[in-house]
Amino acid sequence: MPEKIPEPSAEKLNLLWLQSNGCGGCSMSLLCAESPDLLTSLESAGINLLWHPSLSEASGSELQAVLARILAGELRLDLLCLEGSVITGPQGSGRFHILAGTGRPMMDWIRTLSAVARHVVAVGTCATYGGITAAGGNPSGATGLQYDGADRGGLLGRDFVARDGLPVINIAGCPTHPNWVTETLVQLAIGAFSEQEMDELGRPRSYTNHLVHHGCPRNEYYEYKASAEKPSDLGCLMEHLGCLGTQARADCNTRLWNGDGSCLRGGHACVNCTAPGFEEPGHAFNETPKVAGIPVGLPTDMPKAWFVALASLSKAATPKRLKENAVADHVVVPLRSLT
Amino acid sequence: MSRRIVGPFNRVEGDLEVQLEIRDAVVENAWVVSPLYRGFEQILRGKPPADALVYTPRICGICSVAQSVAAARALADAQGLDMPPNGRLALNLILANENIADHLSHFYLFFMPDFARDIYRDQPWHDDIARRFKAVSGSATRQVLPARAEWLHIMGILAGKWPHSLAIQPGGTTRTIEGQEQARILSIIFAFRRFLEEVLFGDTLDNILALASVAELDAWLERHPLAHSDFARFLHVSRSLELDRLGRASDTFLSYGVYPGEADELFRRGLWRDGARIFDPATISEDLSHSWMTQGSGPAHPYDGATEPDADSPGGYTWCKAPRLDGAVVEVGALARQVVDGHALIRDLATQSGGNVRNRVIARLLEIARVVDAMTPWARALRPREPFCHHGKPPAEAQGCGLTEAARGSLGHWLRIRDGRIHNYQIIAPTTWNFSPRDAGGTPGALEQALVGAPVREGETDPVAVQHIVRSFDPCMVCTVH
Predict the structure, then answer these.
(1) Which end of chain B is more exposed for a tag (fewer CB within 10 A), N or C?
(2) Is the confidence at residue A8, as pLDDT, over 50?
(3) Mean pLDDT across chain A, nearest whole number?
(4) What pLDDT, in 10s, does the model give residues B221-262?
(5) pLDDT at A339 over 70
(6) Does any CB of chain A come closer than 8 Å to the CB of residue B82?
């Protein structure tokens, strides 16, 4: 008689979270999940935390036993999350990260476990594309799970699909917003996530259908090209201070961070941390590269000539209030209603 | 005698392996292995100096702000830049916000769950501790995560986000706040203080801060049973397991000092070994003899340090270098900070029993009270409409050093600029000090010393005493191996 197969809805989904060449910041950010908190979010979708490096009791041989049971087919791996890039160096050996206690390169563990997981999720720009760890000549041989920078491939190869048929899901960001992660995991758990939800770089469209520019509190300064000249000025950071918010794909200014924050609200430029290659902009991060006084990187999908024409028009029309406040660190010309 | 390899450790931020020699159920010798190499010091070479503010916080997701502060200070030192009072106060608040969140995460998420393990099921306190601290399912985690998240709203206001903010600059902060944001920060500090008083201490912060000797702490414990508060829980468990006899290292304590005021720092800089000693940063050196690094001509000061990985380096057993202060092994962290600063209770504890698992944890909890108590006056002293940031540019040729304290101890960045680019960038993280390997003289690092004498219980593969000792340092391995 065949074994009774439990109803999918009654079954818990096992989540395994591994870290390699990362800073742990995506986990630290994830612990900031609110409304509801992380554990409640996971529980709501029937996700069982098989193991997480910051939260679980199991350590050392206990974790090794969990990994062995997964690979022996005794424990189903529904969701495999990797945080941090995969280390392939030196010379492709993976010896820059031998998983402690196992004598085996972490890249081998990741490859083997990815082969048995129902879904593979890369959390953070390191795990997705290599990220900051791939900067400066990439001394550790860092790569993403299914991308090396913007090139599809990475550790698992361009054609990899996990057992349930999806390629690696790339929750890029440095760090990731807690809710980008919790919501994607819940969507996966309830069967509401398909390839349609992924953009051209494998990222959930839930947050990459937006630009960081959307909802930026400096938008009025942007409209009139009233630009900040030094850090802590109130004006738009695009013209001089390296802000990439008009090109960066994320909802940081409509879905805020740590309560009411975002990079722009914190007074500093967006460095486009959800994009492959953000770690090597080719110029100083806090300076906007220009040709003939015009910023090189202009807003996504806007004809350049139009932008330049509109910019000079709006600059001519900039109200005194914006012109003066833009280069001050607090409002020096307050709003007044016309009477 | 048997040899055992223990790992991977979790609840330590990053990957960690410990190799043990065990004789008669006691650890006789230990080697600490950091099995991950990341290469930040190589990445930084040739970059524009200010780019360090983007790269270095990403060394670490848990001490991100501390890394930013060290980088900003190194840059400020290189360009001779000071900061306005608002910048100093805002940076203190941001760093304190992270350090206290880290202390909270350490106690509740990383350290206490080990006492809920089944190995302690026969202890009279086990039922209560397991209900409270069992990893993931314990009642504490559910209570602490929301409190921690709300506490970090101060980051949202003052730094934009956490971790990895660019608000922290050599001349102050980019975020200039208004009066209503100042009001909000004060309310968040008040709410967190209430959480500490109701949940962590079960007593007012004033009463906790007034504990000035071991005798007074013992008397406090006599008045408060196990389930009174999480502080009482820890102290009872600690007494039962004699955690004050576990994990003694070199008893040489270093603190770079942190939270500058108008004149002095809240926690002063210094060195302590059987009394206050002179701390001279020029005597810091890094020894590579047991690291997987290309061997130079002996220990070097970080300004002259090199980072060239060599997985086959003879004698190497870790990616961690071995920092030494005038040749000596030092311990850093909250205990070191409070001993150096001269807090009466912590000095008394350290004088009686040295650096050990219990004293490290008490110092951390006491520090939560001290720092949160200091934050309200800082937030009140902010002056909206006055500058938060001074401005300058790094010169083409310069060097600078940035010293600060992360939650887990002393953090230093040493920067050399040539032709307007980073020529050399060396980082010594807190856990690099604490988890360093042996040096050329064969002297083991602080954790290696602390593990000697740890008991191994019947049938244990990953000795729980070893885990308590390791986690008592609140290690951050991703920083260690930057």
Answers:
(1) N
(2) no
(3) 94
(4) 999 999 999 999 999 999 999 999 999 999 999 999 999 999
(5) no
(6) no
- Do A171 and A89 lie in a common domain? yes
pLDDT at A5: 43
Nearest CA in chain B to A56: B135
For residue range A60-115, list pLDDT tens digits in order: 999 999 999 999 999 999 999 999 999 999 999 999 999 999 999 999 999 999 99
Residue A1 lies in a domain: no
Sheet-wide strand order for A47-51: A47-51, A13-19, A79-83, A119-123, A169-171
Instruction: Tell whether the model's pLDDT for residue A4 goes beyond 90.
Output: no
Count how many residues are written for chain B.
482
- Cβ atoms within 10 Å, residue A317: 10
Answer whether residue B195 shows pLDDT above 70. Answer: yes
Give the pLDDT confidence of B269-288 residue by residue, as tens digits: 999 999 999 999 999 999 99
A142 lies in the same domain as A192: yes
CB contact under 8 A, B175 and A136: no
| Structure confidence at residue A309 as a pLDDT band (50, 70, 90) | confident
Q: What is the pTM of this model?
A: 0.97
Residue A66's domain comprises 11-208
Count CB-CB contacts under 10 A for residue A74: 8
ipTM greater than 0.90: yes
N-to-C CA span, chain B: 35
pLDDT at A333 over 70: yes
Flag whether residue B80 sits within 8 Å of chain A, measured between CB atoms. Answer: no
Based on the fold, state whether residues A125 and A233 are members of the same structural domain.
Answer: no
Contacts A24 to B, Cβ<8 Å: 13-14, 60-62, 478
Of A23, A38, A175, the CB nearest to B145: A38
A29 interaction partners in chain B (CB closer than 8 Å): 61, 162-163
**Residues B419-470 pLDDT 10s:** 999 999 999 999 999 999 999 999 999 999 999 999 999 999 999 999 999 9
The partner residue sitting opposite A232, judged by closest CB among B33, B142, B389, is B389
* B156 contacts A330? CB cut-off 8 A: no
Closest CA to B161 of A331, A198, A262: A262
What gap in Å lies between CA A17 and CA A81, rounded to an integer?
5
Task: Give residues 259 to 318 of A whose Cβ lies within 8 Å of B.
Answer: 259-269, 271, 273, 284-286
A2 — pLDDT class (breaks 50, 70, 90):
very low
Contacts of A87 in chain B (CB under 8 A): 36-37
* Rounded Cα distance, B460 and B463, in Å: 5
Reading the block at residue B331, the tokens are 């311990």
- Contact: B38, A21; criterion CB under 8 Å: yes
Closest-CA residue of A relative to B479 is A23
Length of chain A: 339
Question: How large is the average pLDDT for residues B127-145?
Answer: 97
Instruction: Set out the domains of chain B in order of their start, with CATH numbers.
Output: 2-480 (1.10.645.10)
- ∠ at Cα B105 (B100, B108), nearest 5°? 120
CA-nearest of A216, A225, A199 to A255 is: A216
Residues 6+ apart with CB under 8 A from A117: A16, A77, A78, A79, A80, A162, A163
Residue to substitute from A26, A29, A32, A93, interface B, most B β-carbons within 10 A: A32
Residue A6 lies in a domain: no
Q: Among A157, A177, A208, which residue terminates a domain? A: A208
From chain B residues 30-69, the ones with a CB under 8 A of any chain A CB are: 33, 35-39, 42-48, 50-51, 53-55, 58-62, 64
Closest CA to A177 of A152, A210, A150: A210
Alpha helices by DSSP H, B120-164: 126-133, 139-151, 153-159
**Would A216 be classed as within a structural domain?**
yes
